[in-house]
Amino acid sequence: MTESPKKPKNYFVKSFGCQMNVYDSERMAELLAAEGMAAATDAESADLVVLNTCHIREKAAEKVYSEIGRLKKNNAGSRVVVAGCVAQAEGEEIVRRAPSVDVVVGPQAYHRLPELIRQAGERRAIDTDMPPVSKFDALPKRSRQGASAFLTVQEGCDKFCTYCVVPYTRGAELSRSFAAVMDEARALVDGGAREITLLGQNVNAWTGSDDKGADVGLDALVRALDALPGVKRIRYTTSHPNDMTEGLIRAHAEVEKLMPYLHLPVQSGNDRVLKAMNRSHSRESYLRIIERVRAARPDIAISGDFIVGFPGETEAEFLDTLEIVRAVNYAQAYSFKYSPRPGTPAADMTGRVAAEVMEDRLARLQALLGDQQRAFNETTVGKRVDVLLERPGRRTGQLVGKSPWLQSVHVEVAGAAIGDLVTVDIVSAGPNSLAGILPAKVAA
Ligand code: 5AD
Ligand code: SF4
Could you say which residues bind [4Fe-4S] cluster 2 here (predicted)? Predict the structure, then answer.
């Protein structure tokens, strides 16, 4: 008889992919800590390693297997949990390809992690259920936080863009209750958070009933956070163009703590491609939303997501994407080559774009987006801005924080600490960050 392995003493959670995974990773870490396990400093020294995986593109999904291989080479005795969207999408296939994996757990079932780890002492444990009881009700209360904290308010997606796995890996759209969100926000602030970023795959599709029983949207959560003592900054991500309600746009004009930044993916600037993607917005309707948002908050920074080489995309259609980028003028953006995902409608479409054509389009798009980002960063030089200090910098005496427009700002500040909101003068801008100094004191 083989001896069942000892209970792991320490854990390490490695996160891949989006901010929702970062949030889930934090919650899994809190759960393991509540079980009495200590946090390890790296995967090599941990008894238990959780890989919180991403399935959005093929490259991201394949990373899991190389990661498992590397882990087993450097830390053969560790127990391995594969969590996240690859776990959900591939389930048992993971243990077939990587027999050293002990637990496979999907994004809606990770509150059962302690039990699954116990089971895995005897046999492998796989749980990719989407249980009707929300994991949020079973997770421990939030504990100590950094200055900036994520708070998942909505999960899943009902939009079914034809390229996207999210509706399959994260399930149907589900909003957490107003009360649950506000409870968690209070716990985050008590734990030290000064900025709260509301998260959802379609965060602006959040709906709920407020404390008076009225049906409300995301703007009501923003306003409730605005009134919560200790909250200094509010953000939300990711949004869908069709869910940019009048109320939310108005909140950008009226709620000072709501930061002037909006991540609003458009994916393509061509109506035929948008239709084939099932985006349910057009180039024009997207541009009109941007206009309204800018009218409400003229200094807002717009960020976006783009896919090049969607099946059938012609050169002329790609040029429409460059055109919409010029029309919007993005402060920041993410862009990707189309990656066919098993089980999605686009994976069966004809007209695959050749790899080198995709490569070329991505390079041209990224050159334009890079120019816009640099130009945007330059506009902040000479401005006096508030920076929320979040972490130590590489140099001693240096702290790194975020501007209202989500740019990283390196600040030399004697006497300031992480968690402080300081006012600095921006003295220089690089492609990815800014440098700031405390304003010189005016001589008396
Ligand atoms: N291929 C390439 N990019 C994708 N995205 C989502 N699915 C795919 C895919 N199959 C991109 C979209 C989305 C972002 C999170 O990832 O731009 O907004
Ligand atoms: Fe995916 Fe589209 Fe839903 Fe975004 S809106 S998660 S791209 S299906």
Answer: 157, 161, 164
Q: How many helices (H) and strands (E) does the chain have?
A: 14, 21
| Closest approach atom of ligand 2 to CA 238 | 4
Mutation test residue for ligand 1: of 56, 59, 321, 362, the one with most atoms within 8 Å of CB? 56
The response to whether 161 counts as a known ligand-binding position is yes
| 135-379 carries CATH number 3.30.70.270 | no
User: Which residues, judged by CB distance below 6 Å to any ligand atom, belong to the binding site of ligand 2?
Assistant: 157, 159-161, 164, 166-167, 201-202, 240
Q: pLDDT band for position 278 (50/70/90)?
A: very high
Q: Could you confirm whether domain 10-127 is CATH 3.40.50.10540?
A: no
Contact by Cβ (8 Å): 166, 56: yes
At position 306, the amino acid (one-letter code) is F
Q: What is the mean pLDDT of residues 424-440?
A: 92
User: Are the C-beta atoms of 231 and 257 separated by less than 8 Å?
Assistant: yes
| Fold: same for 135-379 and 384-443 | no
On average, the pLDDT of the chain sits at 94
The CB of 56 under 6 Å from ligand 1? The reply is yes
Q: In the sheet where 38-39 sits, what is the strand order?
A: 38-39, 10-15, 48-53, 79-84, 103-105, 125-127
Place of tokens 């004009």: 253
Give the H or E element holding residue 287.
Answer: helix 283-296
Task: Give the global pTM.
Answer: 0.94
pLDDT of residue 5: 60
Q: How far apart, in whole angstroms, are the C-alpha atoms of residue 271 and residue 96? A: 42
